[in-house]
Amino acid sequence: MVDHKPTSAEEEYFAREDAEKKRKLAADQAKKLESDKKEELKKLHFMCCPKCGMELQTVKFKAIEIDKCFACGVTVFDAGELEKIGVSEQGETTMKSILRIFK
Question: Least C-beta-crowded within 10 Å: which of 3, 22, 25, 101?
Answer without folding.
Answer: 3
